[in-house]
Amino acid sequence: MKESKRSSRRQLLRIGAALGGGLLAGHEGVLAGDNAPGQLGAPLGPYGERSPFEKAVRWRRDSKTPETGSSFTPLQDSVGTLTPSSLHYERHHSGIPSIDPAQHRLVIHGMVNRPLSLTVAEIRRLPSVSQTLVLECGGNSGSEWAAKTGPDVQRSYGLVSCSEWTGVPLSLLLAEAGVQPGASWLIAEGADACRMERSIPIAKALDNILVAYGQNGEALRPAQGYPLRLIIPGWEGNANVKWLHSLKLTDQAYMARDETAKYTELMPDGKAWMFAFQMDAKSVITFPSGGQTLPGPNLYELTGLAWSGRGRIERVDITTDGGRSWVKAKLQEPRLPMAFTRFRLPWRFDGREAVIASRAVDETGYVQPTREALIAVRGTHSAYHFNGIKLWKVHADGTVTNVEA
Amino acid sequence: MWKLRVMLLAGAAVMAAQSPKYGVGSPATPEQIRGLGAAIAPDGTGLPDGSGTVAAGREVFAARCSKCHGEKGEGAVGPLLVGGQGSLATAKPVKTVGSYWPCATTVWDYINRAMPFDQPGLLKPPEVYAVVAYVLNLNGIIGNDQVMDAKSLPKVKMPNRNGFIKDPRPDVGKRTKP
What we know:
In chain A, 15% of the residues lie in helices and 29% in strands. Chain A is an alpha+beta fold. A two-stranded antiparallel ribbon of chain B has the order 2-3. By secondary structure, chain B is mainly alpha-helical. Chain B has six helices and four strands, in the order H-E-H-E-H-H-H-H-E-E.
């Protein structure tokens, strides 16, 4: 009698929990409950959610035009070297289109022998490759050129993410279409509302560009170009055209708005760089970083991320005394070219103010410069390709800010 | 850039010799290609028929563009489109169509594909020609009576057409010792 009463009460609890879970998105009603002995957890589900206790989200500015702008990856909450697709940074120019892959076509035309229309299914049938690569917005850390630099790592360095991308080499598709002699550029266009376009030298297409359909083990997210996008290893994010539907082969660059008015770097003499595609070596400490607080003097693991558009990370140096001395951090292996490399260094915070920073060196021997060295050559109006060393100040009370605070 | 071009041409020639290995896809039809965004080259390749005057552009601009860019392109929610000539090498550079954009064809291409912001692709080619004429006129680049069409637009000399250089990196961050 007692037994059956108990089991019916338990059943009732279970129904209540299931209902609650259904009503509160993310099964909060189930997971937030205590794990009393004998109480079952949530049932199996078709598509996973993270724990409701985890709160890391992308950050974006309030905007009257939220269809254009950027959302920043919470690097301060990252562990390891991969960015979850749901936290990958975004940069859109006219909103995220909703595309039925069955209706989508990639058209290769212009200076080709066989203008081709390809379905997503046809592309997915071809020999594929997967590659773990950083994607970084050309404008990442753009705010660092200003006198007051960003207060935390998300807002100042968060337009960068790292994913495993899967797709077909663009060179394979071009061979199918048959590139005509004299073709030297590709004009890539997306199927978003503004039909965003970029000109890309064909030499890079023959080298290592991917037409990607997969990210981190599943299809691209809509915000990342579903169902097809370009992935251009080491090059600024904007050129990695999302929602790719057109590749036109031409004998000239088309001087699109995003390679003339934008994504060009204005120098102090009034001249501007054009077609500066590659992203330079860069690193930043993600813990401890701006906005975080160390609970008190103790031994901590200082950690962060380093990457280079020109290859592997060779070394990361760390200073905890404002740049007077540097020590080598331990690098996570394997160090993949043009992917995130996580670095780590045990560090004892003794309760005295400390200025900390990381400095990356890539396999070409390039050394991440200071902000001052960049400004000395490029001034403060180049807007893009900022890769300077980021200094954090750990205050005596354990709070962490940028150095201007 | 020229050296790069020669290299690219050589690469393209190699590609052309290849025949399809997988035979994937269908022939793209002219209708399909027309359905894609019209990409306009600096020499005017891709520009459609039609033409537009400054006066017609003033009207289209007032109806479709001024809400975001201001009545005379002075900027509001959207960026300013006018002014800034001679400012690029100063402490306060102002980048606009007039001061910064190197090619008039880019203005046509961008307005045609991306404007108005909330209804991209709304404008018909004559309206695009007209708005381009108006914006160029506001910047003092073309006269009040100049008409923009596929022939005249690529010939417009933008003030900053020679303002761009090739990527010189590594300009900083070079290794100091081997």
